[in-house]
Amino acid sequence: MEGIGKHCCINFSTFLERGIERDSESACVALERMRVVYLLQASFRKECISDVDTRPAYQNLRQRVESSVATFLSHQLWKPDLNKNQLREKLRKHLLE
């Protein structure tokens, strides 16, 4: 980790050259901690999503939503000047019904 911190400080030093008075070593440690936390969270999210994808309840819900969206969109007339925000709002209300 020390090598990464030194590398970080070298890259981070350009921000410090603009007259901002900060402890560059503390900033590098903070950045490294943030990076590690981000990587752990990303890994955790990926594992959770892959677990949820395989559950029958999720598959059923996904199929129902996709079917409902397809039905809703099949009744919409496409125009180049279509207001997409209004269409999204109509779709949201349709899904909540």
UniProtKB/TrEMBL annotation:
Residues 43-96 form the BOD1/SHG1 domain. Coiled coil: none annotated. GO terms for biological process: cell division; replication fork processing. It comes from the Eukaryota. Transmembrane segments: none annotated. It holds the Pfam family COMPASS-Shg1. The keyword Flavoprotein does not apply. Keywords: Cell cycle, Cell division. InterPro entries: BOD1/SHG1_dom. GO terms for cellular component: Set1C/COMPASS complex. This is Biorientation of chromosomes in cell division protein 1. The lineage of its organism: Eukaryota, Metazoa, Ecdysozoa, Arthropoda, Hexapoda. The gene is Bod1.
